[in-house]
Amino acid sequence: MSTKYKHLFSPIKVGGTELPNRIAMMPMGVFSPRLLDPKTGAYTKDGADYYIERAKGGTGLIVTGVVPIIPMPGKNPVNFPDEYVEKMRYLTEGVHKYGSKIFIQFTAMTGRAAHITNEIEWKMLPAPAPIQNVWDPTIQNRGITKEEIQKYIENFAQAAYLVKQAGGDGVEIHAVHEGYLLDQFAISFYNKRTDEYGGSLENRLRFAKEIVEAIKAKCGKEFPVSVRYSVRSYVKDFNRGALPWEEFEEKGRDLEEGIQVAKMLESFGYDMLDCDNGSYDSWFWPHPPMYMPKACNLKDVQEVKKAVNIPVVCAGRFDDPELAEQAIEEGKIDIMGMGRPLLADPELGHKFYEGRLEDVRPCISCHQGCLGRIFQGKDISCAVNPACGREKSYALTEAEKKKKVLVIGGGLGGMEAARVCALRGHEVDLYEKTDHLGGVFVAAATPDFKEDDRHLLAWYKKQMKDLPIQVHMNTEVTEDMTKGYDEIFVATGAKERKLEIPGFDSPHVTYAFETLRDGSIQIDGENVLIIGGGLTGCEIAYMFAREGKKVTIVEMTETILNAFGLSAANYNMLMEVLDYYKVKVIKNAVVEEFRDGKAIVAETVKNYPNVANRAKLMFALWPQGMKVKHEIPADHIVVSVGYLPDDRLYEQIKGDHVYLIGDAKRPTNVMDAIWAAYEIAKDI
């Protein structure tokens, strides 16, 4: 079978290794002891199976997540060389079985991006020189010594040699990228050293240069060494990233220096540049959320390609094979890099090759199953693919006993339950009381920056058509209709929470669901008030602010964006976006009335740093705070204050064979709805 993506599926050499195609899995952290052996830093069988599944799915190159080589008691291959090599052979042989290649990524760690919680971490995770910590600016990371630098270099070379012994095809150095330690050395804004590792650009890159030289001396010149590389930093200041469309003064590495650095990395002996953009101060660049444009790094990466002769990878919301084919054909890049899309669908390579793009389960850039879980100390996985990282234990098998299954509700949770049950051979009826599938997700997917949400919805609808599922639309299930089924999933969703406030019967007051779903609500004036500063409320604020409206958010708590599992990348970008569009946020406040185009807002003020002494005394007498009322111009109000579960039918029919899932159980997010359905359906 031939493919129309002939350039994407052509081979390419990296050093002495030939890749079978131009699709590469980008490195993503795998840290849990179930996937990464805490003693040796080798991948366990579960961890290896996670990568092998992507090789089986047609990915040409697998680049694993970071493994430390710093002097530390565990997770370091150089401390247990024989055991490391033996354990890693299962991974390398498994990847090679499917014709793919594998590079193991090693890291000098985080520098100032470390989570410093104790003295041991402070000693083990140094920066180039003393500098404020990313996560807690009140802490200073210490500076690394020259003796430590030499030990790191020695460890990089030894670890690469062990990979070669284990049958690995190459290594990747982490990283002159994302503001990690080697990147901090490379950038003058962070590197304040005065010795041969600081000052000039040549000095700032000396560490990276000596690493690749040591590896080549140990493993041979043909053994491939890639480097993870951020072309530009997009840093406005400490902990402030620049948005794609804004003008700013670059404090990190600009494009001109980025091209110069790329040339130097090639001259040092690196065989491939694995490129993206960003830093920990601009975290939404290396981990782009849905608010970032697709292929957000391509424009900068193609400038690097003009300047070097070694293969160049481009990553960053880059999941379109048409665009990749064109970019490779035109010589703008050499390899298409994908991270999260391969978590969502490990069979991407084969589906691209066969032109089955409608069958691709898309990544929705939510970060809940990947980064969100990693920062909670859990295994890497995926919001839309619960089997990610659990390829064997969560694999779907044919049911021993075929059952008659009823699914009530055609939202994402209901469709996932129906899909999994049908794949396992059960007889499935799905009932939806409206004329469309998707539930509240239809509204959530409406904003133009939610294109992947719309793709996910289309994917689920296609599964309902392709699988032997009897879908009944415009039918509300009653208790009598549930008789005769062996298993029942109740996915009846939730209803929006309503506010009983004077004036809210006005046509100029709408709720989040109808505002998003209809897409036709016209706002004649320029002032929009959003009640509720959760994720949905802030996204609606962003949507209207981009249209040129003057937007105010009123939030009853002390903070906005209090969504569990919300990644720092998504949070940081949305906060930057609200600031850029001058969205006003009033916290600790409620709307008491709406009349004559004005909202009466009562704000509870607990302290004012600049008020007169007499006022300070008044606040001291009322520590719970004082209420200050504002009149806020509001041509339109959008209420986004959450949902209440609709579990009425469940309460009528509940029993051992009845499962309440999704928003009907607890309104949360896409991940919870899909996972709950999958985890039950895979075992019944």
Please describe what this structure looks like.
This protein is an alpha/beta fold and 684 residues long. It has 22 helices and 30 strands. Strand 11 (235-237) and strand 12 (240-241) form a beta hairpin. The radius of gyration is 27 Å and the shape is globular. The chain starts with 11 loop residues before the first strand and ends with a helix. The model is unreliable at 611-621 (pLDDT under 50).
Blueprint (SSEs and pairs):
Layout: E1 12-14, E2 17-19, E3 23-25, H1 45-56, E4 61-63, E5 67-68, H2 81-97, E6 101-107, H3 119-124, E7 131-132, E8 140-141, H4 146-165, E9 170-176, H5 181-186, H6 201-204, H7 206-219, E10 225-230, E11 235-237, E12 240-241, H8 255-268, E13 272-276, H9 298-307, E14 312-314, H10 321-329, E15 335-338, H11 340-344, H12 348-353, H13 371-375, E16 404-408, H14 412-423, E17 427-431, H15 441-444, H16 451-466, E18 469-472, E19 487-490, E20 494-496, E21 509-511, H17 512-518, E22 527-531, H18 535-546, E23 550-554, H19 568-580, E24 584-586, E25 589-595, E26 598-605, H20 613-621, E27 626-633, E28 636-639, E29 643-645, H21 648-653, E30 658-660, H22 670-681
Parallel strand pairs: 3-4, 3-15, 4-6, 5-6, 6-9, 9-10, 10-13, 13-14, 14-15, 16-17, 16-19, 17-18, 19-30, 21-28, 22-23, 22-28, 23-24
Antiparallel strand pairs: 1-2, 7-8, 11-12, 20-29, 25-26, 26-27
